[in-house]
Each structure stands twice: as C-alpha cells, then as structure tokens.
TrEMBL record:
Source superkingdom: Bacteria
Cofactor dependency: pyridoxal 5'-phosphate
EC number: 2.8.1.7
Keyword Isomerase part of the UniProt annotation: no
Keyword annotations from UniProtKB, A to Z: Pyridoxal phosphate, Transferase
This protein's name: Cysteine desulfurase
Domain Aminotransferase class V: 34-432
CDD domains named among the record's database cross-references: SufS_like (cd06453)
Amino acid sequence: MTTLLAGFSPAELEALRAQFPILSRTTRSGRPLVYLDSGATSQKPRAVLDAERRFYETHNAAVHRGAHQLAEEATDDFEAARAAIAGFVGAPADEVVFTKNATESLNLVAHAFSTTTAYAARGSAPAGQAVDPRFVLTEGDEILVTEAEHHANLVPWQEVCARTGAVLRWVPVTDGGVLDLSGLDELVTARTKVVAFAHASNVLGGLAPVTDLVAAARRVGALVVLDACQSVPHLPVDLPSLGVDLAAFSGHKLLGPSGIGVLWGRAELLEAVPPFLTGGSMIELVRMERSTFAPPPQKFEAGVPMTAQAVGLHAAVEFLRGLGPDGSGIARVEAHERALTARLLGELADLPWVRVLGPLDAADRVGLVSFVVDGPDLQVHAHDVGQLLDDEGVAVRVGHHCAWPLHRRFGVTATTRVSFGPYNQPSDVDAVLRGLHRARALFG
C-alpha cells in the first residue's frame, strides 16, 4: 500500500533516494535494504561522500598551522563548514565548537562544572581563566535532568555530582510517555544550577516542553543544556531562539560523517568554560611554567581537528537545505517524516498486541516510534522482533537505546525502534508491518 506523502512528491522522493548509494544494496536474505535506524545513525548522500573525498584529493592539510597554499585552503574549508553548520541552527560561527561527537560535547559542558568547582575550592584558577560562579557547585546544589535522558546526558551529570557533592534530580515521565511537569516548581529550586534535557527523546519520540523548562530555569538563574541530537536532523531548529544556553548534536545523525559533533554555546558562556582537552592549536602562549589559551571556539579544539568530517557535515547541511526552495529543505523533511510516523502509528494502533511508548499523535513527535510486542496472547522479545525484521531486510534498532532508566520506568527490558530519515518511503512502513505479522504467526 502506498500513500501520497506530505513533504515530497513520489518523483521527488525517488530522486532523493537515488542520492543515497547504500539504499540500492540488498541484504543477506536477498531482499532490498529497508533502513529504519536513522535515530542511531543516518545514511549519507553522494554529496557528503564526494565532499570528503574531494577534500582529501585536493586540499588535505593541517588547518590553522601551515603558511602554504594547501594549509590555507584547508583552513578556509574548515571555517566555511563552521559558518554553514552554525547558520543551520541559527547561530554565529564563533559559537560553534567541533568535537568528535555529541557525547564529547555534553562531557565538555559537564567537565566545566567539576573543573570550575575545583578551581573555586582551591581559591584560584590558572592564569588567564576566571572562576565563573555559574559553573561552581557546592554541596547540596542541584542538577535537574529528566527520566527520559540518553545516557550521554545522564552519566556525565552523575559523575559531576559524585565529584562535587551536588544532587541529581529528575523530571518524571508519565504513563503516556511525556514529561510530567506537575511538580516542576518543586523540582526547580534556588539550589538548581543546571537543567539538562533532550529536545526530543530517542525512545519516546516526544518533543520536550522547552519553553516551560527554560522559564523554570531562568527563574532561579540555572543554566540550560540541550541534547539536540534527535531534533536538529529532523526539524527546523534555531538554538539561540529556544532560550537555552548550550546545546549538543552529532554529525552522523545529520546525514554527515561519523567522528564529528557540535557544541553550541552562547559566546559569553564559552568564554567562561575551561578547556576540556589541552595541547596544540588551543593555546595562546606557552612557557615552561604556564600556558594561556586561545579564545573560543579554538580553546576547545586541541590537536589536529576533524577537517574532512567538518567538510562532509557542511555538505550534509547544504544537502538538507537544498531539499526545499530558499533553503527550506529541513521543513520538508519534518513534514515527510511526520507523515510516515502518522501512518506507522495508525497501523500499530490496530494491532492490540503492540504497545507504543510515547505520544500517540505524530504531531507531538519526531520521526521515531518505539514499541513492544506484549499483547494478552502474544509476547515477543524485542530482539526476536528485530531478527525477524532483519530477515525481511528491515534494519531497526532493538534494546534499551542507551536509556536504561526510561525502559525500567515502563517495565520493559527492551523495545523495537523504527526511526525515519528523509529517504524513507511508505513501502518501508509496509515492510515493518509484514515483519510484525510474521512475528505473530510464528509466536502467537
């Protein structure tokens, strides 16, 4: 069964899919690949593959170092990528830091609190650095996260609490799979120093109430840290306009290469954050006794940076922009993926032996759906569901998706997750349904 898609016409979708070479392959079962694991990592269009190869073939050199032509060209490519990627999320170029992934970006932010707290306890900071009280934690201060966090936005804060004596608190999740803000006024107190949360849950798919959480943080002067990994690749996001202070996302989920992540932060905050990694490139002056550091973003980019990956991610955001007139492609991606999500949710609603986690209205979600097969007369482990789908050529994610506490909240050990990208089509939903009906036939 096929449907008319919002976002792209059938002809446009066919042309879009042709830009992704991997979609033409078959799986070990001899079936065409149906890739539905973009929430874990996205596939890459030819524009990205070509951009990386072209850089290595024509401009490869260490950036911000040599005075020769190749080094100048490589530096230009690297900084052009920074400007384009920053523009994609509504930010100025000097507020974008390149890291190796979003996990490193979030650890960089968490490290700022434990390091600045240590400086404050000692009574001084290294030369050229200041002890900004916004990053100082004292015994009993509080860090607020949510029960829906990916481990990358949970474990670093647990570690900060262990090192500083701060207390970790969290916003609970309702049975319906949305954040329960009914007790937010009690959770955000005068001791709250950080509010950190995912813009979109990588399990529940739901969008966080950013406005409410930011307003609560502002009332007490807390900093807001956003995990934007599941939002930036799938809908228009203007990070400064959201009112958050720092945000992280990854390149490999954004049609870009692996090995590159992004940290965005307000300029005056990045000035106050101490460096995470030290060495070459991030320095201003080095003597045997001490060193001073370059201004942001270079302060956070020690060593030879991931230049080819930045060039590839630049190509990815230009590809996404180009999917619509006047650079509006990401809005069309959102509409396209939401139509697919609505169709999948509608079909799963007719299967009483399938339970969906999270909001049941596609308007409240990004393009991913996690579910369990556990009806009254049928219970199939997610790993078995995933294997049956794999036999059909359908690639989905199974497990706890780096969100163990959230799965415990719903009393399940694992879920099956379907996550869409711009290259998916209605027949991909049909393939999932065929696999689920096969599971019922085998295990029912």
